[in-house]
From TrEMBL:
Coiled coil: none
InterPro entries, per database record: Epimerase_deHydtase, Lipid_A_modif_metabolic_enz, NAD(P)-bd_dom_sf
Species in which this protein is naturally found: Streptomyces racemochromogenes
Protein name, per record: NAD-dependent epimerase/dehydratase family protein
NAD-dependent epimerase/dehydratase domain span: 3-126, 167-271
PANTHER family: BIFUNCTIONAL POLYMYXIN RESISTANCE PROTEIN ARNA, UDP-D-APIOSE_UDP-D-XYLOSE SYNTHASE 2
Length: 354
């Protein structure tokens, strides 16, 4: 299968290119090599490569020639520095997706796999002893400042038990980036309806592994800790370190993309199917910092109590649908993945700090 991989020079995209080639497929990479993602001279993809922006309709049209499916990874990632960044995010991620899909429609390509994200869910799923499943709103700044990090039941104020988020959970994007990732899904679903195309969104959890850009603000917490350790410093863990996440290895995410590309042609036409893409092994950010510090042989993490307003407390996916329907299995467990990452190289990045 010949696959156009947008963003194929990036962290996840480059692993997808390798995974596609390993399965005998033929990737074509289209990537603008954004300076924020690639300062200096980025390594060029080991595949047919077009340096272009997904908003460049002519370049996309040319790159789509002979292509069977599109794997759309190109996006501006990160929380951004300020709201003034919103037009750049929307332009890159949503106008970019619209241009790509319009050309995909015109070229008669009917299969799209999209890099989705868990950020579309906002704060995860919680259970109150009295009220059952509840959806707490954003945490209040005064609670965070006072060290009250756990969200409370919106009805009775009781403590809540975090649970796993299913694909049917309502969307609740909490920042500009999250909003653009949700809009990408809606655009892709509209494309599928209008063209009788078939689409998958893989809602990635926190992806980590070799080639991870250094010091990007988004999902980059593993990267921050790794960089601190490389400088001989202790990882600085925000809040109380008990925030739960699902850290999924980049090679497993690449394999999920290949599985989705190979399966999407057999899915019902006219719609988009979302799959949570996580390891299924939730861990706290504090546990992750400790695992990296001990594998690296560096100083123990320091829990600082600092916080970021846009952060959610716990967000962990239920990836059963991906396992059951696409037969995907994560292969790199937390202990091994973190131990390897503690020693692996990162890509230098000049992405803005949040
Ligand atoms: N890293 C994570 O934990 C994570 C989690 C959830 C979702 N995602 C999604 O996965 C995808 C890949 O992310 P990544 O972590 O590999 O980021 P990355 O920055 O390493 O890669 C993105 C690539 O896309 C390219 N790009 C960006 N905008 C473009 C445009 N308009 N035209 C052409 N190329 C463009 C960049 O040059 C870069 O090579 C993104 O869609 C991101 O939203 C990532
Ligand atoms: Zn309650």
């Amino acid at each position: 299968m010949r696959v156009l991989v947008t963003g194929g020079a990036g962290f996840i995209g480059s692993h997808i290119v390798t995974a596609l080639k390993d399965r005998g497929h033929e990737p074509v990479v289209l990537d603008a090599l954004l300076p924020a993602a690639h300062p200096g001279t980025p390594p060029l993809p080991d595949a047919e490569f077009v340096r272009a922006d997904v908003r460049d309709a002519d370049a996309v049209r040319a790159a789509l020639r002979g292509v069977d499916a599109v794997c759309h990874q190109a996006a501006m990632v990160g929380l951004g520095k300020e709201f003034a960044d919103a037009p750049d995010y929307v332009g890159c991620n949503d106008l970019g997706t619209a241009v790509l899909l319009a050309q995909t429609a015109a070229a008669g390509v009917r299969e799209v796999v999209l890099a989705g994200s868990m950020v579309v869910y906002g704060e995860g799923r919680y259970t109150c002893g009295r009220h059952g499943t509840v959806r707490p709103g954003p945490r209040r700044a005064e609670d965070l400042a006072a060290g009250r990090f756990e969200p409370r039941c919106p009805d009775c104020g009781a403590e809540l038990a975090p649970g796993l988020v299913g694909e049917d959970a309502p969307a609740d994007p909490r920042n500009v980036y999250a909003t653009t990732k949700l809009a990408q899904e809606h655009l892709t679903a509209s494309w599928a309806r209008c063209t009788q195309g078939r689409a998958v969104s893989l809602r990635y959890h926190n992806v980590y592994g070799p080639g991870m850009p250094r010091d990007t603000p988004y999902a980059g917490v593993a990267s921050f800790f790794r960089s601190a350790l490389a400088r001989g410093e202790a990882p600085r863990v925000f809040e109380d370190g008990a925030q739960r996440r699902d850290f999924v290895h980049v090679t497993d995410v690449a394999a999920a993309n290949v599985a989705a590309l190979e399966a999407v042609g057999g899915m019902p036409s006219g719609g988009l199917v979302a799959y949570n893409t996580g390891s299924g092994e939730p861990h706290t950010v504090g546990e992750m910092a400790s695992a990296l510090a001990s594998a690296h042989g560096g100083p123990e993490p320091v829990v600082t109590g600092e916080y970021r307003l846009g952060d959610v407390r716990h967000i962990t996916a239920d990836s059963a649908r991906l396992r059951d329907e696409l037969g995907w299995r994560p292969r790199v467990g937390f202990a091994r993945g973190m131990a390897e990452f503690a020693r692996a190289g990162q890509r230098t990045s000049a992405a803005p700090a949040a």
